[in-house]
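Hi R.,

Here's the input for the 2-keto-D-gluconic acid complex you asked about:
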Amino acid sequence: MTKPKILVTRLMPPNVEKRIARDYDAITNPGDDKMTAEQIIEASDGKDGVLCCGGDPMNADTMSRLPDSVKIVSTYSVGFEHVDVEAARSRGIVCTNTPDVLNDATADVAMLCLLGAARRASEADRFLRSGQWKVWHSTLLLGVHLGGKRLGIYGMGRIGRCVAQRARAFGMSIHYHNRSRLSPDLELDATYHETPESLLGVSDFLSINAPSSSSTVKFLNAERIALMPDGAVVANTARGELVDDDALIAALKSGKVSFAGLDVFAGEPKLDPRYCELENTLLLPHIGSASDSTRDDMGFCCLNNMDAFFAGKPTLNPL
Ligand code: 8YV
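And here is the predicted structure with 2-keto-D-gluconic acid in place:
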């Protein structure tokens, strides 16, 4: 049987590359440069499918210009704001993503952001490395305690619920806002807030876990930050676009927000340089899903979807 022909826009982890080489006739990207829309369209010539990554320009224009041979676009990400699913559908192209396999890894990094920011991990690391640690004293690098605090989770989907599970073990009480209230078996002891404003009013800590969409862009703006308890801690492992950077930076400077742990940035890999000048930020280069097994599982998830598609079966994670 001839192998399906696919384009893989970025270098994959070795275990994923091996499976691609075994089961597909693939053009891969050993140089690993981010491909432009033109390059993706050109390299898709004669291909049956495209395995793309978060941030690849799979917008309406690209979808409209992909060769007719392309029947499936499988993104190596759970977020799919870069994939114009409607434009794909209008051309009969099936799209899939990678839900679930990265819930735990991303929730771990959300806790890293909450805890690392509140306990000043990156500032403490810089302090030590730069030779400033001369003597212990009782008020050295005091942070904010998590236990007994209220954690507001904006977006109580699969990842948000994994954050809640971890935060309970830290002694935090869980509050959340979601498009709709969860069923009791998923909500557990968490308190539902019908509006983001109500949630922010009780968020000593805030974890942003909602997808990027027209209704969530700049969710965390100056008006909403003003509703938060003084000295709140903010973590974002979802998308940078959900934060109004001017507003958060002003709040970090005034102390309204005491600390922020950020794994994602609007326009990344570029970020607002003012974040780097602030001591009260912990900044990570979008490593939410970056554990060895998770990145393999994301690749396998894409390939499971493609395998099913090319076997004439329904895909597992259709968008
Ligand atoms: C990825 C992500 O690092 O899955 C997502 O939506 O944000 C991350 O897991 C990235 O998008 C990989 O393509």
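One thing worth noting: Residues 53-54, 76-79, 102, 286, 288-289 surround 2-keto-D-gluconic acid (CB under 6 Å).

Cheers,
M.
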